[in-house]
Amino acid sequence: MACKESQEEEKEVLLSIYDGDECFKQTENAYQYRMGPEGHYKSFLLEIRWGDNYPEELPDINLDAFFNNHLQSAVRSSVVERIKAEAEQWLGSAMTYTLFEWAKENVEDLMSEQTEKTAQVKEDRKNTSESVPASKTKERKEALTKAQKRKLANRTDYKGEMPRGWDWVDIVKHLSKTGYSKHQENTDKTS
């Protein structure tokens, strides 16, 4: 019964401390905190899940969230082990806040082995596997000014189509511009 009471107290404290913090998220008996800026290759989401006997026993500490897919497995296991080692010294007392703060202070040290290249390779794989078929992509129309739209509307009918014969060549006008060729003169004289 003492464990449940201390869990309720710690829950209230955590919610009051992290109220409005976009890095903090609380579910049933799990608390998550994002370390580092979102989208950065050295950022990670730390999840601490309480068991029935918490704080008398260690909470479940993991980095299994989808947010952490960019992390190397060696870095992931190293971070979990180091946070568990820190948690062991706080056994018997409320430690979730302490572990979050310890991880925030030591994020550079925890992620020292994480490389940017691995994160880019996984992102490239994701982009190639999720390519969208060409038929489903929408083409963007160019933006027209009001004057261009007005001019286009004046040249079209009510359906937005050009009138019949708009691209026909006026033969008389065409011949008047090109003139009469000498080749045609010679053929006219012979006939």
TrEMBL record:
Residue stretches spanning the membrane: none
Region (Disordered): 111-159
Domain RWD, first and last residues per copy: 9-110
Gene3D superfamilies: Ubiquitin Conjugating Enzyme
Basic and acidic residues bias: start-end ranges: 114-128
Protein name: RWD domain-containing protein
Organism: Patiria miniata (Bat star)
